[in-house]
From TrEMBL:
Native source organism of the sequence: Sphingobacterium paludis
Alphabetically ordered keywords of this record: Signal
Signal peptide start-end: 1-24
Protein name (database record): Uncharacterized protein DUF5077
Organism ancestry: Bacteria, Pseudomonadati, Bacteroidota, Sphingobacteriia, Sphingobacteriales
Keyword Signal: yes
InterPro entries noted in UniProt: DUF3472 (IPR021862), DUF5077 (IPR031712)
One Pfam assignment: DUF3472
Domain DUF5077: 47-169
Amino acid sequence: MRTKTFFKFLALFSIFLTGLISCAHVTEDLAGIPERITATDTSFYDVPLAGNAFVTIKPSDANELITENGLANWTNKESVTSVYFRVQDSGSVSLKLRAKVAPANNSSKIKITVNGNAREIDLVGSDFEDYEIGHFTVPAGYVKVDIQGISKTGGYFGDVSHVLVGGVAQGNLLYADDPDYYYWARRGPSCHIGYNIPTQDPIQYYYGELTVPTGEDAIGSYFMSNGFSEGYFGIQVNAEAERRILFSVWSPHNTDNPADIPEHLRVKLNKKGADVQTGEFGNEGSGGQSFLRYNWVAGATYRFLLKGQPDGSGSTDYTAWIDLPEKGGWYLIASWKRPETDKNLSGFHSFLENFNPNNGHLGRKVLFTNRWVRTVSGTWLPIQSAKFTVDATYNAKQRIDAIGGVESNQFYLQNGGFFNTIVEPTSSFSIPSPQIAPVIDFDALP
């Protein structure tokens, strides 16, 4: 699964692969929000739950959810809804809650907690009102406001549409304020690594290793290892009991509806591995998709191999393998033929995203190491430099918890969880050159 914002971003690959800036800039401050918080500013900012809230604690029998109108179906007193916004500097903020209790004549008592400081307020009335919560001292960075029910006279604690934040100077508050971005902001910003390839010779194979650290594999995560100009190849967490290895190739016909693709522009399956599911995908561009349900594990390192080879008739065959020792070694996911494409591999990248908006408050991280390309002439070349980029959600300053860099001589990407470290987009990184090229018997590949 992929975001539309990422596919819009793919057009920029030719830009971020053309050059590297000198080094990454890491900071705990937010660029573009220069002023300190001041309690003398009496204006309030309406932070909509629709784009900035998550039900972070939800018992199995609870029904709470975040809708386009905010918190709804609020009946369980064990459930906790968390609202996030980001302040530039420490200081005092004043909070209000926009809420109502329906049907009429019902009331409820709820608890608001910020940094361990809890306040109780009473809600009453079937029309939305702004209820005073109080003043809180908050540190710089993302602030979490927890909302939990205590008691109620009716079936519902209430509906909540906004948290109102005051005492913040103009421009010092960051949150999702554009309804067009609410869905994407709750998913969290996607981030990417674009690799610098040390040759102009045509590339036939692209090899890379990927590790998801233990505890960084939240449901909804897609860890994409071997991305290229025409598709992507990686692993994802689809549900508590389902994980997949996913390989997709876009059609050259630009549409979000696969049914609109003319027959001569459809990506066609050449072959696939045992138990691999294949079909078409849409709503993110369209093309051919293949996946293997496979319970990969966090903490293990997986090896990916991708091949791109023109067929001599105006199309190119793209083939993906992953090394699964318990299945005998290199395992074929699929080979796809892309029409009107006469080229070898290009646009080398990796990315990290969350495709489940209800889990956007959870963090995820991935490590990329031992990256190589192999030219058509048979020469292996190591990859040792890359550029960090972000999607439209980040660039629109709707949410900015996404970073990339180098850790223990490995490239990494991290997003979600509302952390405060910032790595400036377009920052570049380098690692010591990998020394031992992959040893692969290409003739024995399935």
